[in-house]
Specification:
9 strands, 3-stranded antiparallel beta sheet, 24% strand, alpha+beta, 2 domains, 27% helix, 4-stranded antiparallel beta sheet
């Protein structure tokens, strides 16, 4: 059992297909070109996946480098008016105002997302290293 905090739960199959589980019980299954079935489940709450031995695990944790976190962590959005189809946007691609609005209004947001978003705002403001990002050090 790991003490790490899951930010991105995914695997890559031998033919290059990436399966991502975005939410708890978001089960994804795929039959690869090699005929084997691959699956992933658990979102950011737990990791359950196939074990064929030839898949590549792409799991990212909050404790990984912020560069890795900002590339991998995705936030579900339905647009400013809330009427757009659900789409997932990487933290690095969210604009600063959107991140701040999420922090200000999404009280149900999990602590892992809140921490990553605060780290991203620090990163954009004044950080040059992961240690600076987490600590919020002004340079």
């Amino acid at each position: 059992m790991s003490d790490k905090t899951i930010i991105h739960n995914a695997i890559r199959t031998p033919d290059g297909t990436v399966l991502e589980s975005n939410d708890r019980h978001d089960y994804k299954e795929y039959v690869d070109a090699n005929g084997k079935t691959y699956m992933i489940d658990g979102g950011n709450d737990y990791i359950r996946c196939s074990a064929n031995g030839d898949e590549v695990f792409l799991t990212v944790y909050l404790e990984d480098s912020h560069d890795k976190v900002r590339e991998s962590m995705k936030w579900g959005t339905r647009g400013k008016d809330g009427k757009q189809p659900l789409r997932y946007v990487a933290l690095k691609d969210m604009n600063t105002d959107h991140i701040q609005a999420c922090l200000d209004t999404q009280y149900q947001m999990g602590e892992r997302y809140r921490a990553a978003m605060k780290n991203e705002l620090n990163y954009r403001t004044y950080a040059t290293t992961d240690t600076d990002i987490i600590a919020g050090n002004k340079l």
